[in-house]
Known about the structure:
Chain A has helices at 25-34, 65-70, 73-89, 112-123, 136-140, 144-153, 168-182, 200-208, 246-251, 277-291, 309-322, 335-338, 345-353, 356-359, and strands spanning 10-18, 39-44, 48-53, 101-107, 159-163, 187-194, 237-245, 258-267, 300-302, 330-332, 393-400, 404-411. By secondary structure, chain A is α/β, with parallel strands linked by helices.
Amino acid sequence: MDRTAENQRIVITGIGLAAPNGNTLAEYRRALLEGQSGVEAYEIRYFGKTVAGVCHFDNLKYESRRELRRGTRAGSIAVYCANEAVADSGIDWESFPKERVGVYLGITEHGNVETENEIYQIKQYEYDCSFWSHHHNPRTVANNPAGEVTLNMKITGPHYTLGAACAAGNAGLIQGLQQLRLGEVDLALAGGVSESIHTFGIFAAFAAEGALARHADPARASRPFDTARNGIVVSEGGAVYTLERLSDAKARGARIYGEIVGYGMNSDATDFILPNASRQAECMRKALASARLAPSEIDIVNTHATATVSGDAIEIEALRSVFAECPETYVNNTKSFIGHAMGAAGVLELAGNLPSFQDGIVHPTINVDELDPKCAFPTLVLNKPLEGKDIRVILNNSFGMVGINAVLIVAKYEE
Amino acid sequence: MTRPEIRTAIIDILSDIAPDEDYAQLKDDVSFREQLSMDSMDMLDIVLELRKQFKLQIPEADYPNLVSMQSTLDYLEPLLADK
């Protein structure tokens, strides 16, 4: 198939997001350039005091209080982001055929929050299951966040979520791209969401494996590549993109944020938790091959690094093998500002970098007081933005547990 | 509980289930679903809340008694008389 045909080229025409440090792309980008963290002190039942990336978007902007009560936090985030994306795209939504819209959202996990809540409820009644809510099933079905978007926006095309651990956001975009190329839909609302800060289990499990961040100052807790890094800051959030075929976007005169020119997905097949540098490098090469680009043509590599001791070093090892001779390929990390937004991580982090096509600035990795030699890389952008660069291509890494890797390459669109 | 006390408790339950409604205008002799934005899942919420707050196990066959405020009060008044 000719991937250069305009009906096979997939572009990003709208972005809606909820980040711990911004409720719109403009707010979020400003925070990333001004060094503003979105991580704050946080407390959750059973686990107690910790830190987390907490979102503060207006959850009543597109939903009634009744709808909010009925649904899930992931659904609420998805509904906000999807509506914002459509508004941002400038699409004539009223007249757009809703059966030609697909919703594809990545999730790291779903249902833990709701199940913990129900068990907490019936515990008050000596575990009598007659107090278990009838809302449990519709809240915990794996398609819930995407389904809530269709209910809210009256979309009658396909919807589902993609369970891909912390590579899920990128997997959502890849799915949207593929469905557009296949002609299954004319508009994809694709991305990822996370409600993970509302399950105590995720904090307890990361703590049990020695991978949960601790720091007296929440804003300094997420510190990828720093010698004193001590684990992940769990965050909630979401990002939904409107994806369209280039031919459709041009026909309606859409503003184009960028074109998804390549992607790669693969599996480590080596460990439940520990990542694999060779497979990560293979995934990046796979994405480069699909984009028909050489490593030196990438201007920004937005890393996945989550601030775990081993994970960050493994990703840098993978970068060293792929980008060894690339003095103009800059490397940054967005989790240092927002923590790890799980299913939303890849798409939120990509969104934070897309404005580089216009402003020519590479946002930094913050909180690096002392660079770990195991994470050293010549073109890491540390602590302050790098300005005055001609940014044309961004490679976005996302890797997840049980060995799942998803890499996206987005290029600036020019006529 | 007196009938007015039960009515207040039901309004509190409804306000939690359907928080966007104006309960000052509620007509006791008209069904909840006709005047409030409620569906069958919301009606089940009423049953669950009555179970939680008053330890009332309402059999499914009796659910139709909860159709309006008037029928709900008629049904609950004897059950909650000594609560």
